[in-house]
Amino acid sequence: MRHLLGTDGLDPAVATQVLDSAETMKQTLLGREVRKLPTLRGRTVITVFYENSTRTRVSFELAGKWMSADVVNVSAGGSSVGKGESLRDTALTLSAAGADCVVLRHPSSGSAHRLASWLDGTGTAVINAGDGMHEHPTQALLDAATLRERLGDIAGRRVAIVGDVLHSRVARSNVHLLAALGAEVVVVAPPTLLPAGIDSWPVTVSHSIDAELPAVDAVMMLRVQAERMHGAFFPSAREYSVGFGLTEARAALLAEHAVVLHPGPMMRGMEIAAPVADAPSSAIAEQVRNGVHVRMAILYHLLAAGAEEGQQ
């Protein structure tokens, strides 16, 4: 890999290598009092977040530090972006300053691809940490890692993705990755929260969560992204919960082995009932833990794997 910009078109073999590396790193760090590996010593990772984030930003910082990289965090509010500097100039500045990798979150779809095109030939890798409503590939990879951990394999499994598919970059990345890894994916949402062109996605579309839950191996509840909504997409939060929330009664429809996921942050009581989010079937905490190891694996494959192979 040169960059990680999305899962649409990502080679399943490459994705599997990343997931295998993440599991290896997880086992390597297990039981260590000091969670440090020398893998990225001397490398510099810079995170640039134009949108708020807790899980993604923190896990990238931990991933870099646990691999002995120097990690620098840049926020739009505290940088020259606030003075009007363009994304292109910011990117070239960071590359010139010695960044080996730039992790970008941006509200505009396609921003990570533009950044990568500007930095091609500089030696700086780009990781898409979420670009508008387009993609969030590292989230999809950590979700896949969590499903592998809980279910043993992804191929042949049926996964339901429920909720605000229209505004969700997590949904898009998961659909493409899970389908590439051999899963059957069904998206469940009201018609107003489905994107145009979804007929071209490798999914089945449903409007009834109750009809789908008994036949799935995993259900991923999506965050309702009110900040991206300019208009009324459903009558009220209560009616959304009645129609598409994962209540305790609905969770009882799931098979005993089925896994509950949520990318966070959760709106408890609307998207998912609090007892369901905290039940043994929930893998939400594991998603966060696996996020660090998956992002370690991504940094390894972008910054170190080629160098190690060249030494052999």
TrEMBL record:
Q: Tell me the pathway.
A: Pyrimidine metabolism; UMP biosynthesis via de novo pathway; (S)-dihydroorotate from bicarbonate: step 2/3
What sequence ranges are listed for the domain Aspartate/ornithine carbamoyltransferase Asp/Orn-binding?
Answer: 156-302
Q: Name one GO molecular function term.
A: amino acid binding
Q: Transferase as a keyword?
A: yes
Q: Which residues form a coiled coil?
A: none
Q: Which residues form the Aspartate/ornithine carbamoyltransferase carbamoyl-P binding domain?
A: 2-149
An example Gene Ontology CC term for this record: cytosol
**Which InterPro entries does this entry report, sorted A to Z?**
Asp/Orn_carbamoyltranf_P-bd (IPR006132), Asp/Orn_carbamoylTrfase (IPR006130), Asp/Orn_carbamoylTrfase_sf (IPR036901), Asp_carbamoyltransf (IPR002082), Asp_carbamoyltransf_Asp/Orn-bd (IPR006131)
What does the record give as the reaction this protein catalyses?
carbamoyl phosphate + L-aspartate = N-carbamoyl-L-aspartate + phosphate + H(+)
| SUPFAM superfamilies per the UniProt record, alphabetical | Aspartate/ornithine carbamoyltransferase
Give the EC number(s) under which this enzyme is classified: 2.1.3.2
Residues that, per the record, bind L-aspartate:
K83, R169, R223
Q: Which domain of life is it from?
A: Bacteria
| GO process annotations (BP) | 'de novo' pyrimidine nucleobase biosynthetic process; 'de novo' UMP biosynthetic process; amino acid metabolic process
Q: Which Pfam families match?
A: OTCace, OTCace_N
Keywords linked to the UniProt accession:
Pyrimidine biosynthesis, Transferase
State where carbamoyl phosphate binds. R55, T56, R105, H136, Q139, G264, P265
NCBIfam families this protein is in?
asp_carb_tr (TIGR00670), PRK00856.1 (NF002032)
Q: What's this chain's function?
A: Catalyzes the condensation of carbamoyl phosphate and aspartate to form carbamoyl aspartate and inorganic phosphate, the committed step in the de novo pyrimidine nucleotide biosynthesis pathway.
Its assembly, as annotated, is: Heterododecamer (2C3:3R2) of six catalytic PyrB chains organized as two trimers (C3), and six regulatory PyrI chains organized as three dimers (R2).
Identify its protein family. Belongs to the aspartate/ornithine carbamoyltransferase superfamily. ATCase family.
Q: List the HAMAP family.
A: Asp_carb_tr
From the Swiss-Prot or TrEMBL record, give the protein name.
Aspartate carbamoyltransferase
